[in-house]
Fold this protein.
Amino acid sequence: MNNAKFATALHILTLLDLAQGERLSSEWIAGSINLNPALVRKEISNLRKLGFISSKEGNGGGCTLARPSAEILLSELYQAIRVVPLLGRSNTPNPSCIVGRLINQHLDELYTEAELSLTSQLEKKTLKAFGEKFKPVS
Amino acid sequence: MNNAKFATALHILTLLDLAQGERLSSEWIAGSINLNPALVRKEISNLRKLGFISSKEGNGGGCTLARPSAEILLSELYQAIRVVPLLGRSNTPNPSCIVGRLINQHLDELYTEAELSLTSQLEKKTLKAFGEKFKPVS
DNA sequence: TTCATCTGTAATAATAATTGTTACAGTACA
DNA sequence: TGTACTGTAACAATTATTATTACAGATGAA
């Protein structure tokens, strides 16, 4: 992963969590992330298709969480956002070499195990718990 | 990670492991990975600086493993190769928003934990064990 | 010594991924 | 009917990654 999608998505969801059901506009969210509103809308659109967010068009529109933050696991978010293997791409090696012929298969196994380990780590964390970190200790 | 460095490095080390001390040239290695020899030399140079490989210039030169493959952990390799945070970059958010001001710190914590979990998974795997996968079952 | 073979490294080009920008149709509310 | 939004496309700009070429220097062998 060499993009900021996970950070962006988590930022959006955190804002929505803390907003407690109040609709936020993409412009406002973009201001907090310091990103172009169109990019934010793209990510929102993605998160909406994945069921994390529900949004409303038109005047007074904006978006809210579609599910309680206590039920949203960061592992779900990771899996939804992921576009690239955790440990990077593979090459297209030479099949006439024994290593070349088999390495992608063995790398896949390795990557799968690695992802599983990461996922089970992220399963322990909810969006709600993440959002709590931003509240004053009082 | 959206590059093939981990795959490339592991490919190189696997070839060297299976070569059992025989020197391999960058040209030969490049042929197996199906990559430009200069790129392979760059990666070899990196692995040499990190102590995984020792190489010899000149006629009959090439490289070998600098340490027994049973002692090389895949977690070391990951840490050596890693150039980008596991879950991707962060944004440069707006500090006048409470979430914007704190999110990178909390993301860092999250990323650190995630990496730790991945690392402890990869610690269980040696280069030797990985290399075994390429040997015929007999 | 001279040649062929190889590493090490730099410089540069080409390609691909990522992010940023602008624009505008369509929706919803007042 | 106007204003404030979303949703989406088309495109530009930037950055990351991979590929290519070139060549100095090391090493061993003829």
In short: The mean pLDDT of chain B is 94. The longest strand of chain B covers residues 53-56. The two ends of chain B are 37 Å apart (CA to CA). Chain B is about 55% helix and 5% strand.
